[in-house]
Write a structure and sequence with these properties.
- This protein has helices spanning 11-21, 58-62, 77-86, and strands at 2-7, 31-37, 47-48, 52-53, 68-72, 92-93, 97-98, 103-104, 111-112, 117-118, 123-124, 129-130, 135-136, 141-142, 147-148, 153-154, 159-160, 165-166, 171-172, 177-178, 183-184, 189-190, 195-196, 205-207, 212-213.
- It is of the alpha/beta class and 216 residues long.
- The N and C termini lie far apart (49 Å).
- The mean pLDDT is 97.
Amino acid sequence: MKKIAIYGVGGLGHEIAAALRNGWVRDAENWEIIGYFDDRDFSNAPTDRLCGEWLGGIDALNGWEEPLGVILCFGNPGTRLAVAGKIINPMIDFPNCIATNFQISDPESFSIGKGNIIQGTCKVTTNVTIGDLNLLNGSVVLGHDVMVGNGNVFMPGCRVSGDVTIGDSNLFGAMAFVNQGLKIGSDITLSPLSALLTKPNDGNTYIGNPAKIFKF
């Protein structure tokens, strides 16, 4: 059995722990949840019904002395990458947590890195590449020849058309749409139900159909 811990005991952590316990994740029968890490202090109520025992925060994880897989359960792109960057323990690895009903139209042309979470009913077509530490949060579809970098979050129902290149640390809201052929950089936020039809500028929030820069 491979020992697994959840990092982050919020809503996403509960979803992932429940999926593991119900066998909805590939290889779940070979994984044992030993508890959860969280930088908040849970010493007064350390036991979580789904995630198990609180094991401490980043210092405890970096001092862990046995091989351990850690699933980063954060829905914020920057947080996913920041927490991963603080984990320097060579005993720790980041397994992919992939739903059993994830559909790959062309497995021979599909590649994926580490530390990704792919929730139920997501689909990729042909010649799709996914990097590290991304979250596809349910019913996400990636079209042909899509390349995804690291630490991106796709909320439920997001649709990405073919020939799209996506950099790092972007957030795509629920039911958002990305037009074919776009080159997306880093740190953009596409609001829910928005349609991105033209190339966005890094570090901005886009909203509407067609999506335009939102000024706070």
